[in-house]
TrEMBL record, chain A:
One Pfam family from the record: Ctf8
Alphabetized PANTHER family for the sequence: CHROMOSOME TRANSMISSION FIDELITY PROTEIN 8
InterPro entries with a match to the protein in the record: Ctf8
Name by which UniProt lists this protein: Chromosome transmission fidelity protein 8 homolog
TrEMBL record, chain B:
Keyword Ribosomal protein among UniProt keywords: no
Record-level GO cellular component terms: chromatin; chromosome, centromeric region; Ctf18 RFC-like complex
Protein name: Sister chromatid cohesion protein DCC1
GO BP: any one term: DNA replication
A Pfam family hit: Dcc1
Family affiliation: Belongs to the DCC1 family.
Keyword set, alphabetical order: DNA replication
InterPro entries associated with the record: Dcc1
Domain of life per record: Eukaryota
Protein's UniProt keywords contain Zinc: no
Amino acid sequence: MQIQVKCSCGEEKCPEWAILELQGVVEAQPSFKDHLQNLQIGSLCRPTSQETYTFTVGYHELTGTKVPLKKPMLVLKKIKLDTEEEKDNISSSMVELDVIGVIRQRILFKTRPKALISKPQPTEKEKACAAVSSMSN
Amino acid sequence: MEIEKSQPYGQGGAEAILNVQPNTSISIAYHHLFGPHDDLMLLELDEKLLPDILNQRVTLRGQPHEDAVLCSQSKTYAVKFVGTSNSVFLIPPSNLSIALGASPNPSEKDHDNSVVASVIKVVPGSMELVEVAPRLDKLKLLLSENPYGFDEVSQMNTELMHKNKGLYSWSDLVEKVQASDGELCAGLRALSAVEIDGYWRLLDENFVDEILNMLVHNVVLNDWLVSALNEDEVLHVLEADGFPRKIVRHCLEVYGSKVNDETTGGCTWRLEERPVCVHFARVVLRGKKMKLERFMEEWRKKVPEGMNASFDVLEGEVLTEKLGIEIRIYAFSVSSLPSVPAERFSKLFQEKPKWEWKELQPFVRDLKVPGLSSEGLLLKYTRRTQPSADAEPIFSAR
């Protein structure tokens, strides 16, 4: 079997995607767990002209930096091509991989979160576990 | 606390994240299409492979039961999934809908002008590439299923034969063998395969023997020089004996080399000592062990005049064993051994528990593992013992 790796965007035009990476998990309040779509996670701020960033999630603030990746990463999308004649009842669905983006840097938050206000913590300590609540609006 | 579910989806996207201006902030939200998106994968790769990928010169190859490999034009890479326990939020550019084939977000209006970047999925890890040796043993296995022999030549209706199993075209091989195009080509060359009627074939050894014998016979008959064979003449004469031109020419390529001689005109070939002598040694030794003296005698009889059957050319083709004062020789060809190092060494030590370096070297020098030197290979797969400082080292299984 051979899977063609395609690139519909073409060289030089491959759109750059972004990555925010933090330790642990972000947990939504239980009532939102199953419909996270459109929910706000937090706010990313660049306080100075340096590549230092803060990411505020609920009452927690993470501090991190933008780091270039040692090797680029490609975003691949698996596309199932339905073959028109299905031979011998074997569903011979062909697969293609399409390069839809490239990632060259990430914003990495590797420190533990800092509590912004001394209200009771929403969840456990260890991880960057925070209830998602609306920050603005 | 009021929780607002329908956050506005702005034009921010990845662009906004990558270009946050000092003293500003952007809002990070889950995308309206947020989900597991198992069809989205990350592949980490070397910068120098990027042009190959972006110009669509790369494929993934392998059968469903095999681990997939990624092939560029010239190299093969194993694909390894590396997981992470971090939360990796993947943020597409704002015009993602085109890439994902989704309808634009209905709530794209941004009522308070704040920029939003939306997370499409949390990535569990990425795929990494490790350069590996091409998996060419399978190529040999496939082509050995149905070698091309004399019966097929004499059979007028070749259509009939093609219905038989064990015939592989280039595109069949690409589907089945985990190697890049370049490595597959080199593999076919190393196996002396020839393309006949669109299928890549090995020539049956008996058939090759007939051709070479006929050639040697004609060398004597027509007073040809093994160092200057006229291609047209050779093809013409052997064709008259029923050997197809294409096959004979292929044999000239395998057992000879082209001589650039402008004075004679036409194409001139020189038969090469090593492959010709090795072929005849294999024929003599077929399936048996022989006393060395008897072997040498029979072998020299077969080798054409003008060629010197010297024992050196049999490096990597035979093994000898001592029984009392008698030395016996038998066929043991490096080309019949697996190319995966672990399997190769296991076969070697199965054949013979102890090897001197001089003996071992011809059977391991073709092993190539990206990132591992030949010393590294020996360290990994053998135990080296040296009874005294000036003694020859002995290699045995680890």
